[in-house]
Amino acid sequence: MPDMTPRTRCGGSLAVALLLAGSAAAADWSSTNAQLLHGSGFELGLETRDILTLEHASEWKYGSNFAFVDVTEPFGDATELYGEWYTRLGLGKLAGRKPGTGLVRDVSVAASLNAGQGFRAYLAGATVHLNVPHFTFVDVDVMAYDDRSDTDVTYIVTPAWEAAFPLGAVRLCLRGFVDVIGREGERDSQVLAQPQVLVDLGPLWGNEGQVMLGIEYQYWHNKFGIAGVTESTPQAMVLWRF
Predict the structure, then answer these.
(1) In the 3-class helix/strand/coil scheme, how is 134-165 assigned residue by residue?
(2) Where are the domains of the chain?
């Protein structure tokens, strides 16, 4: 998942209040939002579902934190929880260097916990923060991925991005990520992509990123590592940053 930087204010940054104790108080900046998604065509579980996502990110002197929690079917009887938490230490920040102006802005060491009902995975590796024209951020995670349901370890590579463009009186926001996960144990390799196309209505009342409407498209090849199970699902989405 993405590491949000001070420039990523397109709809606010991702996450929840699952950050390190005291990190919010010590943060150089922080941002929290709630998202509500509705879609059909899911291959496993309920075919049609609502998902409430709480997201939060913060940055401090030497690094950043990012977390989110998905609440599937928050208004129904089959409610499920899933969350991810990431912490990063910027090598350039630790060395007291200013962000690079070339292709690579900085490199962070990163660790993550992914957990849900009956699932837990640990991740560790690096995040490369890139400077790409017209993008508020482009990050690439390269990490070891350990699903604790077996003794094997594989890899995960995750590019993430965000860009915002004027669109009349509002803004168009393009953001998303792609997880590429290697084969692990009996699970096949996976590709999970979740690009979002959102219209930021906040400029209409002078508060960019406060309310956004649009779609998220989910493509998940070999979902949960199950060979041949592929989802291709658009979801209506509203985001509120508070």
Answers:
(1) CCCEEEEEEEEEEECCCCCCEEEEEEEEEEEE
(2) 23-241
The CA distance from 61 to 27, in Å, is 8
Residue 153 burial (C-beta neighbours within 10 Å; 0-12, 13-18, 19+): middle
pLDDT tens profile 177-221: 999 999 999 999 999 999 999 999 999 999 999 999 999 999 999
| Segment (H or E) for 234 | strand 230-241
151 exposure class (CB count in 10 Å sphere: 0-12, 13-18, 19+) = exposed
CA atoms of 205 and 227, how far apart (whole Å):
48
Given phi > 0 = left and psi -120 to 50 = alpha, else beta, which region is 7?
Answer: alpha
Closest CA to 116 of 149, 81, 146: 81
Say which CATH class 23-241 falls into: mainly beta
Residues 54 and 73 sit within 8 Å (Cβ to Cβ): no
Please report, for the chain, how many H helices and E strands are present, in that order: 2, 13
pTM across the whole model: 0.88
Q: Which two tokens stand for residue 7?
A: 């420039």
Q: How confident is the model at residue 27 (pLDDT cuts 50, 70, 90)?
A: confident
Closest CA to 20 of 75, 86, 73: 86
